[in-house]
Design brief:
Strand content: 5-15%
Distance between the termini: 45 Å
Number of helices: 11
Shape: globular
Order of helices and strands: EEEEEHEHEHHEHEHHEHEHHH
Radius of gyration: 21 Å
Number of strands: 11
Structural class: alpha/beta
Length: 352
């Protein structure tokens, strides 16, 4: 698929006008793509590409480091505008810009809930765990407009299919009643991403996200509602967010919010994200450019010694503040179902 097959040749429209449709939408069927701009301050400069996707459940490549096999991503692109976002390169698959375009050209799979419900009902589906928020945030600002997640959670709940959500968005609290219903019938894992609590750093590297303290309010609210919530302390940003005092302040805040675990993850810079982040770094912290070039000289990941040092520091702080460090992917791991209480009286064994 190339993006020229998905654009509307008549140009963008807004909610007050008839919208044009793009021809030859290869992955989405005929008459399936709408390009829309919204004339509100909240979405100033943002264009939504509404598509009717043909599939919604994605298999994670076997070579991936991810601790899950299946994902659902109702959006592409993200208005959180995090300068380090590893998913930026996915916009290049559509011939879209991975910089400002990733932040402002949002692809919306408007039929995601219906597609997922059909997929879960298929005989070929075996009820495997589904992870969400692993590419871009499913609770970014666009979700307030399109409301795809309630239908998605409904489908997962109705099929008792285990799932997990990773988010920086406070909008997840809107769906708290649905999450509680789902947690009654299947495994639900929620993680909130809070890499640091430094206000100045937050404003410059995550300009479209809720403030870290608001995200920790989400952790607190979920915990109070009986839904355990872990924190993915990601990313720990070298030389900007890795000072021992910064790590201590973040872990202390995470503990006070009642998180069940804290899992540190050092910044990694994949193609697409690397170029955008390094451009930002050269603008805001030019004295760090050479240090980053040396630290990431071997590829997308910081050296093992550096990752181990940060992980050790965070785990020691977690123990000090009374939260146990989680294992990688623990917030996404499916727990074994609790056995149902035995009925009184004799029972007949059955193979079915």
């Amino acid at each position: 698929m190339r993006w020229e097959n998905l654009t509307d040749p008549t140009g963008p429209t807004d909610d007050r006008a008839d919208h044009g449709r793009a021809p030859d939408a290869a992955l989405f069927g005929a008459d399936a793509v709408v390009r829309r701009t919204v004339d509100t301050p909240e979405f100033a400069g943002v264009t939504f590409h509404e598509i009717r996707a043909r599939s919604i459940v994605n298999r994670v490549p076997g070579a991936s480091r991810m601790p899950f096999e299946w994902t659902v991503n109702p959006y592409r692109g993200c208005t959180h505008a995090c300068v380090y976002c590893f998913a930026r390169n996915t916009h290049s698959y559509l011939d879209l810009d991975t910089g400002l375009g990733f932040d402002s050209q949002i692809v919306v799979k408007v039929n995601a809930p219906q597609l997922l419900r059909g997929h879960l009902a298929s005989r070929r589906w075996h009820g495997d765990h589904i992870a969400m928020g692993t590419n871009v945030d499913c609770y970014q600002r666009a979700e307030g407009r399109y409301r795809l997640m309630p239908g998605i959670i409904d489908a997962l709940r109705d099929h008792a299919n285990p799932f997990s959500i990773l988010t920086k968005g406070t909008l997840i609290l809107r769906d708290l009643p649905l999450l509680r219903q789902a947690a009654d019938v299947t495994d639900v894992g929620i993680s909130v991403s809070v890499g640091f609590v430094d206000q100045e750093l937050w404003r410059t590297v995550e300009p479209g996200t809720p403030a870290p303290e608001r995200r920790l309010d989400v952790v607190r609210a979920l915990t109070d509602a009986g839904i355990g919530c872990g924190v993915l302390m990601a990313p720990v940003i070298p030389f900007l967010g890795d000072h021992p005092d910064q790590l201590r302040a973040t872990v202390r805040a995470v503990a006070r919010a009642g998180a069940t675990s804290v899992t540190p993850l050092v910044l990694h810079l994949r193609p697409g994200a690397r170029e955008w982040f390094m451009t930002w770094l050269g603008r805001h912290h030019p004295y760090l450019v050479r240090r980053y070039e040396r630290l990431y000289a071997e590829g997308a990941y910081a050296p093992k010694w550096y990752q181990r040092r940060v992980t050790r520091q965070v785990h020691e702080l977690a123990e000090e503040f009374g939260i146990g460090p989680s294992r990688a992917g623990a917030a996404r791991r499916v727990r074994a179902a609790a056995p149902e209480p035995a009925e009184p009286g004799p029972t007949q064994l059955s193979l079915l």
